[in-house]
Structure formats: C-alpha cells, structure tokens
Amino acid sequence: MLTHLRPALILFAILTLITGVVYPFAITGIAQVAFVGKANGSIVTDAAGKPIGSALIGQEFGTSDPASAPGLVKWFWGRPSATGPVPYTALNLATGTGSSGSNLAPTNPALIDSVKARLAALDAADASVGIVRVAPDSTSRATAVPVDLVTASASGLDPHISPAAAEYQVPRVAKARGLTEDAVRDLVRQHTQGRALGVLGEPVVNVLVLNQALDHTSR
Known about the structure:
Blueprint: H1 2-34, H2 36-39, E1 43-45, E2 51-54, H3 109-127, E3 160-161, H4 163-177, H5 181-190, E4 192-193, E5 204-206, H6 207-218
C-alpha cells in the first residue's frame, strides 16, 4: 500500500509547492516589476504622493442636489452612483442597496425623478457661472445632455464618462477656472482613452485623472 501511496504523496507535495508557493510568488513578482501601478489597485496620488483614489473606482465630484451644485462647478462630474456619495458600499440588507446599478426600469418613477434632479443640478451648476442652456419660457435645450451624466452605470462604480459628457461640461469648467474652452477641451482630448485594441468598446474619459490634471493646470 505504501508503494502506491508514496508517488501520490510526492506528487501532491510537488503540485502544492508549485501552485501554492512558486506560481503565486512568481506572478506577484512579475506584476510588481512590470505592472506595479495596476498590481496595487491603480492608485492615483497627488503631487505630494498622497493617495487620492483609484483610477478604477469612480468618485462623486457631482451632485443631484441643485442647492449644492454651484460649489462643484470647478470639476468635471462623473456618472451618478446608486451608492453615492460613498463609492463602494457593501450590501445593506435593511435598504437593499449595495455597489451596483439602481436596477430601475426606464418607466420607474424613481428613475425619472432622479434624472430630473440630476438635470436640475447640472442646470444650477451652469447658471452659477452664467451659462443658460434652457430658456426660462421653454423646456427645450440648446445642447442635449449626454445620457451618462444623468444615469448610473451597471456597477455604480464606473470611473469613466464619454467624451460627449466631458465636452458638455467644458464651458462650465472653463468659466469656473478662468481658462479658455480650448485649453480645457485640449486637456479632455489628452485624457481620452481610445477603444481597447482599437475596436472594443467606446472612447472614455477617466474623471478622477482628468480632474487631477485640471487642478495641476489651474495652479
């Protein structure tokens, strides 16, 4: 019996050593050398080296409250989060919320109300710097609002917006910071990521990285 058991034990020990020790340490070592940023969570730091967030997780630069919108005009807003203002929340059994999309149907009154509130906040932010997109006696808009500025992503954590959503905010951000629209637009262009492999997905703009570059430019 021991004759048959010994090879199995030896093989078990070898595979345990390879898969449980050698492989994890090798992959970790390669990642720390070749992909140190991504391996550690794609952490974004400020000029002093202090972590300010992750390029993979959205932060709430915007709001759905018109009253507080004027205080947030200097930054590009990301997508609304179903769990904001905290980017990540574990499942709360009492409220049924967690880091995810809202899962509200397009005809759900709650979704319609949240979109209206977000639109009102965007308009309030624009108005605070003298930009009027809707005439007082009309409901029509001079510029359509990109859908990703008023709806959450599937995960509720998306750090990106579309180039169109960034372009919509260029006039407000430029006025709030005393920059030309062309300067802000060029910054957006520099931080627009193209399609993966040239064909997958759509171009996107990382809001946290863009706002960090914007703060650096405005100094």
